[in-house]
Amino acid sequence: QVQLQESGPGLVMPSQTLPLTCSVSGGSISSGDYYWSWIRQHPGKGLEWIGYIHNTGRTYYNPSLKSRLTISLDTSKNQFSLKLTSVTAADTAIYYCARRSVSGTTHFDSWGQGSLVTVSS
Amino acid sequence: QSALTQPASVSGSPGQSITISCAGTSSDVGSYNLVSWYQQHPGKAPKLIIYEVRKRPSGVSDHFSGSKSGNTASLTISGLQAEDEADYYCCSYAGSITHVIFGGGTRLTVL
What we know:
heterodimer, A: 121 residues, mainly beta, four-stranded antiparallel sheet, 11 strands, 0% helix, B: 111 residues, three-stranded antiparallel sheet, 1 helix
């Protein structure tokens, strides 16, 4: 069974870049069957889709974040990453990585435990 | 694009049934049978409980069921149990630009 685990800095200064990594075990991110995804949850609020990447390198981003966002793959480490630039307090959230099947469906069937990122000086 | 609309809270007694609505538009819920539902307990990651409107993943109890009519999807929980107390989120495919849109979440309280 696939498992996902986020890792990141916990605290990021305003205007800096937020880096997060998702390590995948029990399955290969080189599989063409999935989109590897990032989703966030502001404190006490709902879920927000950030974006996802396919093993071909094709990315799909939330239009509201697209100008600040990069999602990439590292197949040698079986990891994928998120970089969000020019962060503000509004980017403070729990960031989840998740897996979404490619084949004609859009649900997220496996999730990491989440990584809390606080943007503050 | 705005989030899908869910009631902020619902409640029910053990053994009762409740339904949580998820209102979208003709650009998301109404156009695709790609609605999913997630259960989230405090401090935990969301867990998939319904996909493609009404399908249940392996291992998910059959007291969860989903449906859709027009632009509104619904999650019904029958025979409420204490462990069903959680937050519930709907999610829909929303086309090739927006891709994914979530509801604002509904807190279920089991009285």
